[in-house]
Amino acid sequence: MKPRHRKLTIIIMSVAALGLATTLVLDAFQSNLVFFFSPSQVAANEAPKGKSFRIGGLVKEGSVKRESDGVTVNFVVTDTAKVIPVVYTGILPDLFKEGKGVVAQGKLSSDGIFRADEVLAKHDENYMPPEAADALEQAKKSQKTVMTD
Amino acid sequence: MAINWFKYSSPASFYSLAGKMIPLFSIISIVLFVLGLYTGFFVAPTDFQQSEAYRIIFIHVPAAWMSMFLYLIMAGWAAIGLAFNTRLSSMIATAIAPTGAMFTFLALWTGALWGKPMWGTWWVWDARLTSELILLFLYIGFMALQAAIDDPRRADKAGAVIAIVGVVNIPIIYFSVKWWNTLHQGATVSLTQSPKMATTMLTGMLIMSLACWMYSIAVILMRTRTIILERERNTMWVSDLQGAA
């Protein structure tokens, strides 16, 4: 083996070893790299107790209610399996909408209500003109009526 | 006719070849930038949920793509330089770093400007944003380490080690949105699935990416030429060049 080929082999081997080491480390830290917990994870007691953490999911349709002070909002976060009621006082991001993604940071109180001190909107990776979105919505609706008929 | 490619691994012949290629890549880049920005701002439709604010995507995504591509290319040249002891490869790696760092910064900056109105925050420590920030530190670390060592050949070798080690971060950035819960949404455009965006939007984004590629090639060639001149300043061909000018 020529010296330069030996060198190249050493480089490739060390990158492979490093990659493997990183994979193992990331795998070990899996639970700490989670940005938010889903309602199902919270129900399964996977979220930290007594500490501030984030929950993520969709804002349940028809669940957003503003209190009379105008800045306190109640809504329900769902992952379609489990739900968590959330109360938040403050300004909501523009993309906060029923049926859309949301990430809230706060604490779970003993009555099961999540008291958020920060609410962020999580949007999806789809980009299209409004007409196309309307058309998709219509198609979904007509499909539903066909199924229920 | 067989082209002797190894001829261009000599800094002297690469210097003149690069000089001829720079104007070509610069012109293509300018044309594509004009075309891409026009498509992005005037042809592409309004988005259904983010309305006009999504248009920052035409800078943000190409910059983020370039930040990752350029790192891989930089590490590749650095590894070749380390393994085969070729001077030019290491010079190209050194020349790529500032452009890569610029695109990384641009991706983070435009992302922050986009995040504030859409997500409601400039910055979060989720896996995608954090790993991209680490990429910026890797570029800066590579440049700082090379600048700290006086002997250029030793600087090349030390830099190559950092560059190669940092490669593990690239798949982490790319797959972070798939592997973990992140605030950043998943990939809109990928090799395995059809793109999740309107065709004119996609066209604008791809033209902008190509423009960024052409820009990067032109700037990296310019910087490589400067590095060649600096390192070969005591050679005959550089003094000949000065005599001719």
Q: What global shape of chain B is seen?
A: globular
Radius of gyration of chain B: 20 Å
Mean pLDDT of chain A: 85
CATH architecture title of the largest domain in chain A: Beta Barrel
The number of E-state strands of chain A comes to 6
Provide the structure class of chain A.
Answer: alpha+beta
**Unreliable parts of chain B:** none
Keywords:
heterodimer; A: alpha+beta; OB fold (Dihydrolipoamide Acetyltransferase, E2P); 5-stranded mixed β-barrel; 3 helices; B: 245 residues; mainly alpha
Write the layout of secondary structure elements.
The complex is a heterodimer of chains A (149) and B (245).
Chain A: H1 3-28, H2 39-43, E1 53-59, E2 65-66, E3 72-78, E4 83-89, E5 101-108, E6 114-122, H3 130-148
Parallel strand pairs in A: 4-6
Antiparallel strand pairs in A: 1-3, 1-5, 2-3, 3-4, 5-6
Chain B: H1 11-43, H2 57-84, H3 87-118, H4 127-148, H5 152-166, H6 169-179, H7 199-231, H8 236-244
Helix pairs in contact in B: 1-7, 2-3, 2-5, 2-7, 3-4, 3-5, 3-7, 4-5, 4-6
